[in-house]
Amino acid sequence: GAVVSQHPSRVICKSGTSVKIECRSLDFQATTMFWYRQFPKQSLMLMATSNEGSKATYEQGVEKDKFLINHASLTLSTLTVASAHPEDSSFYICSARLTPHEQYFGPGTRLTVT
Amino acid sequence: GENVEQHPSTLSVQEGDSAVIKCTYSDSASNYFPWYKQELGKGPQLIIDIRSNVGEKKDQRIAVTLNKTAKHFSLHITETQPEDSAVYFCAASKSAGTYKYIFGTGTRLKVLA
Questions:
Q1: Mutation target among B30, B35, B99, B105 for the A interface, most CBs of A within 10 A
Q2: Which residues on chain A are in Cβ contact (under 8 Å) with B103?
Q3: How far apart are CA A102 and CA B83, in angstroms?
Q4: Do B106 and A93 touch (CB under 8 A)?
Q5: A96 — contact with chain B (CB < 8 Å)?
Q6: Between the CA of residue B53 and those of A8, A20, A68, A103, B32, what are the distances in Å?
Q7: What is the C-alpha separation between B90 and B66, in angstroms, rounded?
Q8: Could A105 and B99 be called an inter-chain contact, meaning their C-beta atoms sit closer than 8 Å?
Q9: Nearest alpha-carbon partner for A12 in A108, A86, A62
Q10: Which of A85, A104, B23, B45 is deepest in the core (most CB within 10 A)?
Q11: What percent of chain B stands above pLDDT 90?
Q12: pLDDT band at B46 (very low <50, low <70, confident <90, very high)
């Protein structure tokens, strides 16, 4: 149980285009999901907290107009990287909260912007 | 601000030996401490967790200990196997707000066959 999927697993796009990443909790409902960014050989950096039916909460320094989050249902949150640039290339990982403390992570999405 | 320090950053052990990874947290209100294993190109996988009302928890070859007074917690892996090779992250959270995690910086464990 507690399986989280992400789609796509890899995406390559041209600079200036927008990319949407989906995060789904497959066997449980999650009112809260989290979006992280991870650079090579570094830890996970929390970008934002996604709350079903309400606006996302962004961490300090994260541009809300660039990283658009929508949590329209109890099993789906989406992250859209608007007008992506090479510096947005990274590994994006979502997690879904099963219990107040427990988070289960998706497999990640590798974004490459050329 | 809230911080979790993790040591060592890299650890090499011989197959069959034990491995210990230590974390120290700064926020005394933290009350939940999970450990995640991340393999290359994959998302983190929860391997064990401990709550602040417990001093130790064990699951087969993996154990976690917590010292609330010193604000330390440690991951112990016994009888290591090559498939234990991965990056391990500790985290801390508290029962407030969104219960978000503060992650450690990670430990790259290599088990030598």
A1: B99
A2: 43-44
A3: 24
A4: no
A5: no
A6: 40, 41, 38, 20, 9
A7: 12
A8: no
A9: A86
A10: B23
A11: 91
A12: very high
Instruction: Judge whether A18 is closer than 8 Å to chain B, CB to CB.
Output: no
- For residue A108, the chain B residues in CB contact (below 8 A) are 41-43
pLDDT at B98: 83
pLDDT computed for residue A95 by the predictor: 97
Closest CA to B58 of B33, B75, B82: B75
pLDDT bucket at A32, cuts 50 / 70 / 90:
very high
Contact B109, B44 (CB under 8 A): no
User: In the numeric block, which tokens belong to residue B32?
Assistant: 């939940």
Where does the pLDDT of residue A1 fall: very low under 50, low under 70, confident under 90, or very high at 90 and above? confident
- Give me the amino acid identity at B71: K
